[in-house]
């Protein structure tokens, strides 16, 4: 989980997940996932650009920026995979 999680962190994440879930009524899992990944990468590129004065400055820190976002995504994905592994039957085969 990210450091310094504020009270609305999961509410914001759930809003993105809910939008993706709504899109599943019209398109496949893979396409929704690809769109969400693209949107996240585009937004992260923009917020990264906000921290620089020039494109050259941004280019000089490109690898550092990539390393940061890839490491954070890896940690979050690993945490969520472990959660699904530990709770597979509860999440994937809920009893009604």
Topology:
Layout: H1 9-23, H2 29-49, H3 55-60, H4 62-86, H5 88-92
Mind describing the biggest β-sheet? none
Structural class: mainly alpha
Coarse morphology: elongated
The averaged pLDDT comes out at 95
- Termini distance? 30 Å
Could you tell me the strand content as a percent range? under 5%
Number of strands: 0
What is the helix tally?
5
Which series of helices and strands comes N to C?
HHHHH
Unreliable segments of 5+ consecutive residues? none
Q: Which key terms come to mind for this protein?
A:
single chain, 96 residues, 5 helices, mainly alpha, 75% helix
Verbal overview:
The protein has about 100 residues and is an all-alpha fold. About 75% of the residues lie in helices and about 0% in strands.
Concise summary:
The protein is an all-alpha fold. Helix content is 75%, strand content 0%.
